[in-house]
Write a structure and sequence with these properties.
The chain has helices at residues 6-29, 33-56, 58-105, 152-158, 208-211, 224-229; strands at 129-132, 138-145, 171-176, 186-190, 194-196, 212-215, 220-222. Helices cover 48% and strands 14% of the residues.
């Protein structure tokens, strides 16, 4: 098959268009001026009629408006669907995060649930200074639970089978005195492991002012927000 370049293709197109052009020219120039005017008028009328039907007709504009509204409605529906999905996704995510945070803050005597009435078997109070019987560090009580509230993994690690009964005894959250040089800053211990220090004992801890406003000679004075949680301490 012979190769046809661009120039040859252009020549072929010109030759093929020559016949219709010749026919139009012959029809145009083969008539007198009156006929040419009539033909021109027909062309103008036909063009105007086509223009009015497509651009000036109420039906044509109504069809265009319906098409535009249909597309707009589709876009709005898609947008609303995306918005609903986004709200649902982030709402579910936020709820799960909120539930997780609430569950975390209910552990280790950090719950803001008001401890009232206070059971008689709770021996110690928030603000009292304690000493750990086994490890020897001192600290101050900042919260308590009637029984251990902690993740199950923590409880299993803390209390082997022989000491499982301690989970059901009162537990205290302690700010550990930094002056003791103990490695941890807080502790969560059962009641049987601590004893009250009688007399003046200054506890050094960066969070003391958040929990207490002063010292009355026997125990630390709770801040108002903490007093609301432990009204009987």
């Amino acid at each position: 098959m012979p190769h046809i370049n661009a120039a040859a293709a252009l020549q072929i197109c010109v030759l093929l268009s020559a016949l219709p052009a010749q026919y139009f020219i012959s029809r145009w120039y083969g008539t007198d001026s009156a006929q040419r005017i009539q033909i021109t008028e027909r062309l103008i009328i036909a063009s105007w009629s086509s223009f009015t039907k497509s651009c000036l007709s109420r039906d044509a504009w109504a069809d265009r408006l319906k098409l535009w509204l249909s597309k707009t409605r589709t876009c709005l529906n898609v947008g609303l669907l995306i918005l609903h999905f986004r709200n649902w996704y982030y709402g579910e995510k936020k709820t799960k995060i909120g539930d997780s945070e609430a569950e975390t803050h209910s552990y280790f005597a950090e719950s803001t649930h008001v401890r009232s009435p206070k059971p008689e078997y709770i021996q110690f109070s928030v603000g009292q200074v304690i000493s750990h019987k086994r490890f020897g560090y001192s600290g101050v009580i900042v919260g308590w639970d009637v029984k251990a509230k902690a993740p199950e993994e923590w409880l299993q690690h803390k209390y082997p089978p022989a000491k499982q009964g301690l989970k059901d005894t009162p537990h205290y959250r302690i700010l550990i005195n930094k002056a003791n040089g103990y490695g941890k800053s807080t502790a969560y211990v059962p009641e049987e492991e601590i004893t009250i220090i009688m007399g003046v004992e200054v506890v050094h801890h960066p969070d003391m002012k958040a929990y207490f406003s002063g010292y009355d000679g026997s125990k630390y004075i709770m801040q108002p927000w903490l007093k609301k949680i432990y009204p009987h301490d």
